[in-house]
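sorry for the late reply, my laptop died twice this morning and i had to redo everyting from scratch. anyway the thing you sent over, i finally got around to it. pasting the sequence first so we're on the same page, its 93 residues, then the predicted structure underneath. double check i copied it right bc i was rushing
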Amino acid sequence: MKLLLCTEPTCTDVVRLFGGAPRRCRCGASSGRYLDEKRVEISGPAVILGVDNVAFEAAHRRWADQDAAQVNLFFLPAGASTVERRERRRRAS
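ok and here's the structure:
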């Protein structure tokens, strides 16, 4: 699973990404979406956080059984092959 973290100091929103239309952070400066099962496309001041899917599912099952559950996040590096950065299009005035 990949999450978009807006790095705009007044926002720092975290958004889960899906395929289809891009999802935006709370301030609207950053957006992203899945292109396929592994690759994402992002724009704006953002970084991608990754969550191991198998570990997440196991933690979710433990949580559903009323147990504490912990999941580790990791920052994908700026040049990761699974992250494509797109420039935001400026609206015509």
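Residues 2-84 form one domain.
thats about all i looked at so far, will dig more tmrw
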